[in-house]
Design brief:
Rossmann fold, 2 domains, globular, Glyco_trans_4-like_N, glycosyltransferase
Amino acid sequence: MRIAMISYYLPSGSKIGVGYQVHELANEFVRRGHHVDVFSECGPMEGALYALRRLHLSGPLRTFRFATNLRRVDFGSYDVLHAHGDDYWLWRRRVPRHVRTLHGSCFEEALRIKGVKEKARMILLGFSEVLASLVADVTVAVSPATLRWTPWVTHVIPNGVDTSRFHPSVGRRNEHPTVLFVGTWGGRKRGSDLARLFSEQVRPAVPDAELLMVTQDAPSDLGDGVTVLGRLSDEELADAYARAWVFCLPSTYEGFGIPYAEAMASGVPVLATPNIGARYVTDEGRYGVLADLEQLGSELCALLPDPARLDDLGKASLERSREFSLSSVADRYEELYRAERGQR
């Protein structure tokens, strides 16, 4: 098949998880023999097997202008248009099959984000998601709770993780208790809050514990036991998961939360705050630990010195991760791609 993918974001220009998923999914379809072109505002990605069709933009309101510019693109040579955002103006049928993935809900994020300007932006994007779900032949959500704002959508396909890269590695776990965080220092990922709780509660109780933070916006000196790793390559990130004892991401909101699934595929216990994505990925805490922000410190203090519980949670993580393998996710999308024309 000839597949056109739309995503404003790619890892070359943004840390947003949607871009990483588009990159991985597009590569997987190329490996399966499909031709994939990705239409994006971001630059080329190292390791991309797909072709990049870049729409160059500058100035303000680029995400909205990106959607407008897509109307000028001729998608007539493609069998499938798979949009991961910004297709809300493409209401006229342009391909035999138009699939839209909702990677979360901007309405949901608007309830939690700070700042009037950002709330207004999220609400506008939320209406664009609703419109896009009506424009596409079939719309997919990455978690069941995302359907709250688009109840007419019935398909749920989670994000996928490349299990050839993220997998348990016997003998690579650090000798000392290690907590891993992947996200931003500020904003909804709340890396600063995790660092504070670690310094105030975990380090005094478990003196040899270490918090490794894969983030680019943290201060350089965060005190004993906290190390900022910055941005890592794919191989370095996989190695960081393999060495961790616990993965912790205290987000206020995740539509899915790819780092949770990456940790699980690596056999690492997941500790998270009960946001929408974490509740789905851990199946309401059956395959991980959910706790409110201020309880994370005490949970880590209880987990790190308990090898039996860590082992049980690691096995549970690995079991759950099979639901999120990139291969199974691509299988399910291929079924949608091949469905009869016009089937909704």
